[in-house]
């Protein structure tokens, strides 16, 4: 491993709780830019897919939201592309911390289960908005960028279409284009295909594969076993707020090492879900 490369993402001792209890317990991992990415003690190439699996309520979505500080951690630290947000237990967020949160978010793109497109704006306007408002980009530059992003996700002829006229797959691809317009270093996806009809999953998956080929680091939370196995190079299995197993997808599905992972996968096999 080339140790002089700067880390792309560093998560250290990440903890998060809500009123009903702990959600994340001392989560730690590092992804190094241009070399290998490691989660706990396993290594991954930076541009590979990493899928996060686990039962409902295990902390997957909170884990993802803490990476880009949509949920501010109770304690621990998150570093993305050299921008660090850290917090001690009980610490009240300061103006300096919130400024760091803003800086970190500019390095991360996030796509949600619900597409969150503005219904009163066409697709091009949806994509142009953030670069203009957040980065101060001129309108003509944002227009050119928006058209490039739509072409990248296979929606070149949809610039003037409104969200209400789109299929679920088209809407999700538009949401990916909007996130990419901010030129993020990392893309995060929270259940990106769970609201889609089965025949539409492939078109979203293809966009992610294309981004993978371009070297984009992507972390995906999903319940869909086939999607995880087909799309990801490595899989993290979470349970009760902890990372309990991390492995190559084919190996994890064929021979999970942890009892909790085996029980989770057995549930889907017994339910007739093809993995």
Molecular structure report:
This protein is an alpha/beta fold. The chain has a domain at 116-183. The chain contains 9 helices and 12 strands. The strands form 2 sheets. The chain has a 6-stranded antiparallel beta sheet. Strand 6 and strand 7 (83-87) form a beta hairpin. Helix 4 crosses helix 5 (168-180) and helix 5 packs parallel to helix 6 (198-213). The radius of gyration is 19 Å and the shape is globular. The two termini are 33 Å apart.
List keywords for this structure.
disordered C terminus; single chain; six-stranded antiparallel sheet; alpha/beta; six-stranded mixed sheet; 275 residues
Overall pLDDT level: 84
Using the alpha-carbon principal axes, give the shape. globular
According to DSSP, the number of beta strands is 12
Assign the structural class, choosing from mainly alpha, mainly beta, alpha/beta, alpha+beta, or little secondary structure.
Answer: alpha/beta
Helix content: 25-40%
Backbone CA Rg? 19 Å
Q: What is the CA–CA distance across the termini?
A: 33 Å
- Helix-strand pattern: EEEEEHEEHEHHHEHEHEEHH
Strand content: 25-35%
Widest sheet, order of strands? 4-3-2-1-6-7
Ranges with pLDDT <50 over ≥5 residues? 34-43, 271-275
Q: Compute the number of helices.
A: 9
- Major sheet: 6 strands, antiparallel
* Assembly state: single chain
């Amino acid at each position: 491993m080339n140790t002089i490369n700067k880390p792309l993402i560093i998560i250290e001792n990440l903890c998060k709780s809500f009123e009903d209890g702990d959600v994340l317990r001392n989560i730690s991992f590092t992804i190094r830019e241009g070399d290998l990415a490691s989660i706990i003690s396993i290594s991954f190439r930076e541009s590979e897919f990493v899928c996060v699996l686990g039962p409902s309520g295990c902390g997957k979505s909170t884990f993802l939201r803490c990476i880009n500080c949509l949920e501010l951690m109770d304690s621990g630290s998150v570093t993305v592309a050299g921008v660090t947000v850290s917090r001690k237990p009980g610490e009240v967020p300061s103006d300096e911390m919130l400024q760091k949160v803003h800086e970190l978010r500019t390095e991360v793109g996030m796509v949600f289960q619900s597409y969150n497109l503005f219904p009163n704006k066409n697709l091009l306007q949806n994509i142009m908005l953030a670069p203009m408002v957040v980065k101060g980009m001129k309108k003509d530059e944002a227009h050119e960028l928006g058209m490039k992003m739509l072409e990248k996700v296979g929606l070149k002829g949809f610039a003037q279409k409104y969200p209400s006229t789109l299929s679920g797959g088209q809407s999700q691809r538009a949401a990916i284009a909007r996130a990419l317009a901010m030129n993020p270093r990392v893309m995060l996806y929270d259940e990106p295909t769970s609201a889609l009809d089965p025949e539409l999953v492939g078109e979203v998956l293809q966009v992610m594969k294309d981004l993978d080929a371009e070297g984009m680091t992507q972390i995906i939370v999903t319940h869909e076993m086939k999607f995880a196995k087909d799309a990801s190079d490595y899989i993290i299995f979470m349970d009760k707020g902890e990372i309990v197993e991390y492995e190559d997808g084919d190996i994890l599905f064929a021979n999970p090492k942890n009892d909790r992972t085996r029980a989770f996968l057995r549930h889907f096999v017994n339910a007739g879900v093809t993995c």
